[in-house]
Amino acid sequence: QVQLVESGGGLVQPGGSLTLSCAASGIIRSINDMGWYRQAPGRQRELVAVMPTGGRTNYADSAKGRFTISRDNAKNTVYLQMNSLKPEDTAVYYCNADITSLMYSGGSFFKRKDYWGQGTQVTVSS
Questions:
Q1: How much is the average pLDDT of 56-76?
Q2: Is the pLDDT of residue 105 over 80?
Q3: What are 121's strand-pairing partners?
């Protein structure tokens, strides 16, 4: 089964930087959108950034100018470079990917669906 594994979270002071990574594993035929979401306590999960395979990147207004999303398609990995971090960036960050993979279901062997990582904690505090 496809898995998304995030890494790179941690504690950083305001104004600092972190880079998150998310690697997809499994018998993957293709990956379409890959992106990052975050969820703070008491809040809904929100989009941070998304990068389609061959499309334009999209950022939440709160992330524009500070965060950069990138992909290494050979490694099935998406990154989120976060600069000028603020306390309000504190959240669990989740990787999300739209993946077509091998799934023994019905008469077809491949299925396209979105997957979520387990999340990585980012804490911005002095």
A1: 95
A2: no
A3: 92
